[in-house]
Amino acid sequence: MPMLMLLCSAALPCAAAPEPAAAQQVDAGWILRALARPAPVRTAFVELRGSPLLKAPLRIEGEYQRPDKDTLVREVRSPYAETTTLRNGEATIARAGKTPRKFPLARVPELAGLQASFGALLSGDRALLEKHYRLSAEGTRQQWTLSLVPIDARKPGGVRDITLYGRGAELRCIETRPLKGDLQRTLLAGAAHEAAGMDKAPALAALCRADSAH
Fold first, then answer.
1. How far apart, in whole angstroms, are the C-alpha atoms of residue 8 and residue 17?
2. pLDDT tens digits for 145-158?
3. What pTM was computed for the model?
4. Measured between alpha carbons, how far apart are the two ends of the chain, in Å?
5. Could you give the CA distance from residue 64 to residue 74 in angstroms, rounded to a whole number?
6. To 10 degrees, the CA torsion angle through 66, 206, 51, 118?
7. 140 membership: H or E segment, kind and range
């Protein structure tokens, strides 16, 4: 993002020099405009998934892809290979050596919410997001958070809130708190690459949140 430096004219009195653009406070509108990306677009991701059946959280790596404005693809590459494609109200899950499974998104509200949220974020569609969430932003252009609180959290597969962490025009991390279960943290883009070799939740949390700033 180009940085616009505001200079105080020497001919006019001013109380203090204005902040550089990177240090200016942000609002939800600025963040959504910065994140908007026309399709096609793709970004790496890293997740840790906890389970009572596992001694340690499962580290999942892969890539999100948006080949066109109506399609979202979640490709898991490690520790297993699986591709989930969301398109036209339908989810298709494909694994090597198995017949792809297809089912309507209405059966899996969390996937429907994922597609709608990512689509609205990448298109900068604030009006669509505000149909489902209350938005609030904090921070500066160099380091910001955007919180999404569902207007109706009682829906099946609902969440308490979703928090996005970013720097400039880069969305680096998403934390989702479900109504039931543990917080889910997804590192994206540069943060996902920086997470190489990390498998401890505290380290990934630090990378995701404010501690990730340089």
1. 6
2. 999 998 876 765 67
3. 0.80
4. 17
5. 5
6. -20
7. none
